[in-house]
Design a protein that fits this description.
Elements: E1 2-10, H1 15-32, E2 38-43, E3 53-61, H2 64-86, E4 90-98
Antiparallel strand pairs: 1-3, 1-4, 2-3
Length: 100
């Protein structure tokens, strides 16, 4: 199994909108690609000096081939929507993990 992990640092002024948009729009759009069979959405439990909050979204897929299909066909469009909506107020860091 492949875990696609996105950690996003979110400024306070957009946090409420960000959470709503992720739950109602962005996460459903990612899942509609058919690549991922499950997801989890977390808030990191730590205090930030600047008042921002970090969130983590984890998507699960069965193979690296499916992950590469997501990257080729869907990732750029979905990332652009988020970047255009929030600019530098939601900064993402992505990692891939493999079950061993």
């Amino acid at each position: 199994m492949i875990l696609y992990n996105i950690t996003i640092n979110v400024t306070q002024d957009i946090e409420e909108d960000f959470l709503s948009w992720m739950k109602s729009t962005h996460i459903p759009e990612v899942l509609e690609t058919g690549i991922f069979h499950d997801h989890k959405f977390f808030r990191l439990l730590h205090e930030s000096e600047d008042g921002s909050t970090n969130y983590c979204i984890q998507y699960f897929t069965d193979s690296m081939e499916q992950m590469m299909e997501y990257e080729k066909k869907h990732a750029a469009i979905l990332r652009t929507k988020t970047q255009e909506r929030y600019r530098d107020k939601a900064v993402a860091f992505r990692t891939l993990l493999e079950t061993i």
